[in-house]
Amino acid sequence: MKIEYLFLGIFLLVIGGIIASFGYMIVREYQTFLGELSRALSASERQRYQIAILMTTGGVILLLVGLGLTMYGVVATAGEKGIDRLSKQIVEESEREFNLYFKYCPLCFAEDSVKPKFSFGGKDYAVCSECGAKWHLYFGLRGFKWAKLENINIHGKGSEFLNKEYQPEFWQRLALRGRKETKN
Ligand SMILES: [Zn+2]
Question: How many Å lie between the centroid of ligand 1 and the Cα of residue 140?
Answer without folding.
Answer: 25
